Amino acid sequence: MNPADINPHLWAALAATVAAQILKLALVGVTERRFAPERLLETGGMPSSHSAAVSALAISVGLGEGWASTMFAVSAVLAAIVMYDATGIRRAAGMQAQMINDLVSELSHLFDDGFRPQSLQTLLGHTYPQVLVGSILGVITAFVLQ
Question: Which residue has the higher pLDDT, 29 or 114?
Answer without folding.
Answer: 29
